[in-house]
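Researcher: I'm preparing a figure for a lab meeting and need a structural model of a single chain. I don't have an experimental structure, so a prediction will have to do for now. The sequence is pasted below. Please return the structure as tokens so I can convert it later.
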Amino acid sequence: MKTTMFTVVIAVAGAASAYAAAPTFSKDVAPILYKNCTNCHRPGEIAPMSLLTYADARPWARSIATRVGNNTMPPWHADPSHGEFLNDRRMSAGEKDTILAWIREGAPEGDPKDLPPLPKYAEGWMIGRPDVVLAMQEDYPIPASGTVAYQYFEVPTNFTEDKWIQAFDVRPGNRSVVHHVIVYARNPNEPERPREEPAAGKPRQTPPFTFAEGMEIPAGQTGGKELPPDQRKPLGPNDRPQPKGIAALVGGYVPGNSSRVYTPGTATRLPAGWSLVFQIHYTTTGKATTDRTAIGLTFAKEKPKTELHSVVLANGSLHIPAGEANARVDAEMTINRDITVWSILPHTHVRGKRWSYDAIYPDGRTETLLAVPNYDFEWQTDYVYRQPIKLPTGTKIHATAWYDNSPANKSNPDPTKDVWWGDQTWEEMMFTGITVSIDPAPAPATPVQ
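Model: Understood. Here is the structure written out token by token.
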């Protein structure tokens, strides 16, 4: 009888100990969510629900378990075998185990006194309170149905001195209709000039990058040559055409990615007096509405040590056959100056399924810079290197994208049709944005006396 009683006491004590060890929201889960999730999962942001409080998170416990368990949340698609990234959203194995154990034990709240302080966010912004906000100068009307061509909206800055952009955040006025935004800089006071030929006897300056032949974007498409006047589509009453002289990239918004904070000591330059041009791709939703998109900018306090530039590597000649489940498209460029690569952003439309980027060095050695085995159109990431990559003159960057144009792709608009390059999501792109800096030329050798 005493042995049985002793066993029961131990069993009860063990159960109590297990219960006491069960993770709680306040003590164990909230710190993980604040670190990994609430930048998006908070009121007014892109996620469908807030996870800031227990009352917010508890109704979604089962969904959280599913998404954390199958690694679809937090969203991250790069292969960890190639590169380490500052913006890696993945949870550690321990963090995932804690969340799953919390849900398995009934998702208890715990003692609210154990809650860490709520993270501080600037309302409406991912980068904190920006130094300046520049918005479109109109509420642009989007129709209920039909295809809307890319629209361009010029926004004056009125800056009287050069600005060094340390961070940007593009905020659609109406996320339901804004597919993507690219913000460019333009000098409104300088007319577009024809390309100048070098003076007689003076060698042509080698550009920093040379692109492989046969990758040109088709005429009439964004980024391609203009069509002859008699082949251009007439402008409608609400068309805002592209102004001449668009130059440097300032920032952008794509599904899952709207902001960037540059590494301290680096920034992009916005010259005095230049304006911004918002290129916006709208999609209709069945209801007429309007949009007024804005960009928030934070400036470096002093001129940075390193100026960043954006380079586009694209293959506009892509052709994806109907029904093809594993179509491959390649693009390549050669580096003509020593550079440093800071980040790589892959972009396709809904048929894109994976990416790979290789550096082919002058000595023939090949290194994989980035692999994205499960590309997701809804979560397009600018992969920012923890340690930027130095690439010497003569290196080639080779990009490869694979596409699923088969009926097995549930997002495929029409697997019975061949696909070519085009602006709209039922067409395709093979586009990469690469953030680089041009390394200083080595100092000339001092002659030996």
